[in-house]
Specification:
The chain starts with a helix and ends with a helix. The longest helix is centred in the middle third of the chain and has 58 residues. The protein is elongated, with a radius of gyration of 26 Å. Helix 1 packs antiparallel against helix 2 and helix 1 packs parallel to helix 3. It is an all-alpha fold. Helix content is about 85%, strand content about 0%.
């Protein structure tokens, strides 16, 4: 395998790592969105349970506070995950550019010196790089499936039947 072929494998590996990182970010975002939904459900349930004990203004303020918290959390989640996606994209581009330049410099070096040590080294490392690239592609596929599963799961399937803080306080009184 030539240095150019090794650089192609390295570029594929970098791209696979980048896609895996993006899949993890997508899973994080989807998980965060699920958390917001679950918290909204718990808040609304607790508010409904304690509605008879609250004034209309207190209930209105509680709904407004919950909506504000959810909005800020969602905006923060979107902002940070979009930023992380951009960072990964830029790092992948930078790493791929580095591999391309290294391959070009290696070819130029061998051309100028007449030495073939880098080609020999590329041939020796190619099988390992190819195996690592295949493994990284499998990991990328699994993280894509995981991110898709997290994003697609119905949050109502999460069964955590616990009494609310309001309900616990009522029972204690």
């Amino acid at each position: 395998m030539s240095a150019k072929n090794l650089s192609t494998v390295a570029t594929d590996l970098i791209e696979s790592y980048g896609n895996t990182a993006k899949n993890v970010i997508d899973a994080y975002r989807a998980g965060g969105e699920r958390v917001v939904t679950l918290l909204e459900q718990r808040w609304n349930s607790a508010l409904k349970e304690s509605r008879s004990e609250l004034t209309a203004e207190t209930a209105k303020n509680a709904r407004a506070a919950q909506a504000a918290f959810s909005a800020y959390y969602t905006k923060g989640l979107t902002f940070t995950t979009n930023g992380a996606q951009q960072v990964v994209t830029q790092l992948v581009k930078l790493a791929e550019t580095g591999v391309e330049r290294a391959a070009a410099n290696a070819a130029l070096f061998e051309e100028k010196t007449g030495a073939s040590a880098l080609t020999t080294l590329a041939a020796a490392t190619a099988p390992g790089a190819l195996a690592l690239s295949k493994l990284a592609a499998q990991i990328e596929q699994k993280t894509a499936e995981l991110a898709s599963k997290i994003a697609g799961d119905d949050v109502t399937t999460v069964s955590a039947k616990r009494s609310s803080a309001f309900g616990q306080r009522r029972k204690a009184a």
